[in-house]
Amino acid sequence: MARWEPDAQGRMIRAALELFDERGFDQTTAGDIAEKAGVTERTFFRHFADKREVLFDGAHTMEHTVHDVTVAAPAELSPLDAALAGITAAGELLADRHEFSMRRSRIVAANPSLQERELLKLAAMTESTTKALHERGVTEPVASLAAHSAVTVFHVAFARWVAEEEPPAFADCVAEAAAALRALQ
Amino acid sequence: MARWEPDAQGRMIRAALELFDERGFDQTTAGDIAEKAGVTERTFFRHFADKREVLFDGAHTMEHTVHDVTVAAPAELSPLDAALAGITAAGELLADRHEFSMRRSRIVAANPSLQERELLKLAAMTESTTKALHERGVTEPVASLAAHSAVTVFHVAFARWVAEEEPPAFADCVAEAAAALRALQ
Fold first, then answer.
1. What is the end-to-end Cα distance of chain A in Å, rounded?
2. How distant is the Cα of A103 from the closest Cα of chain B, in angstroms?
3. How far from each other are the two terminal CA atoms of chain B, in whole angstroms?
4. With contact defined as beta carbons under 8 Å apart, do B14 and B76 qualify?
5. What ipTM, to 2 d.p.?
6. How far apart are CA A1 and CA B8, in angstroms?
7. A27 belongs to a structural domain
8. Whole-number Å distance between alpha carbons of A35 and A39
9. Mean pLDDT of all residues in A64-74
């Protein structure tokens, strides 16, 4: 028996993931998601611009977090360490969404248009990080290089984190990827 | 007096750049480009899928070059150095297209949809480089980290190269950006 859930947005996200998994992203409509979540299509479109947005719901929050945490990192941190603090904080937003993140990654990997959207999201995160480093007084090309490097670390750490059912903490995945980056000769 | 040019493709590229610069990308049609280049619209579409493709003409050649040169780099090179050899060779394809590259960058920077396409092209270059490193026997996460780092260096070196009328050689821009990357703490 389904228990009553006031969280319509969460219900729509869960319904969408199930449908994308079962039928495929292309074969699922916004109407299907609304129906499965027990809401009207109108409610769906009050929350999301389209079905794709269900998967990119947290992107803006992550961008803002990366920016704000990078700007506020201790002054003595190097540009790369400040940016890594930012991306670690963004990753921590996902801490209690591991199962969601695993399923979402699988769905994105199966759809070229979602992969493109994911790349653009990472590019936006790089831009936020570069901007934050500029606000810390870091000049070019160091700001861009450190921001790209930190987002690359995020990308690699995230891939590791969603590859296992019981992964290390996200911050540990970041530390591991950052160490490998620093070891490049 | 215009001299006779057998190179229809080159004429279309030059005509497109002039029109994109003068009128803006959105205000230029494939028909305008064909007319200015003295070819039929049909000829235009035999060479390019759409007007956007005029600006991304060399992308596949660059991806293949990065891949092949990275694979063939001396065995003793580190993964990062092998990838840097690949992106340097890709950059050298642009050596005699500096003025074109400057104008093209300005046009891309003014158009969000072209910027997205450019990001996807860089992502494809990262993918080619990662694949080439795998073929050299480099494992994850080092292959991804080295490939992303090399493409970041390409991106930063390219930005520097197109920022000046008389820039250093592309390979020197790469060396400079790679040194700054290695100096990140």
1. 58
2. 21
3. 58
4. no
5. 0.86
6. 69
7. yes
8. 6
9. 97
Instruction: Flag the least confident range among A35-39, A57-61, A89-93.
Output: A57-61
Structure tokens that stand for A79 in this block: 């540009």
Residue indicated by tokens 């079905």 = A51
What is the distance between the alpha carbons of residues B64 and B86, in angstroms, rounded to a whole number?
9
Q: Is the per-residue pLDDT at A39 higher than 90?
A: yes
Q: How far apart are CA B9 and CA A167, in angstroms?
A: 52
> Is B2 inside any structural domain?
no
Res. B2 pLDDT band, cuts 50 70 90: very low
Instruction: List chain A residues with CB under 8 Å of B177.
Output: 141, 145
Tokens describing residue B132: 């080439």
Which CATH number is B17's domain given?
Answer: 1.10.10.60
Q: Best interface-test mutation with B: which of A80, A122, A145, A172 has the largest number of B CBs within 10 A?
A: A145
Among partner residues A123, A142, A152, which is closest to B145 by beta-carbon distance? A152
| B1 falls within a domain | no
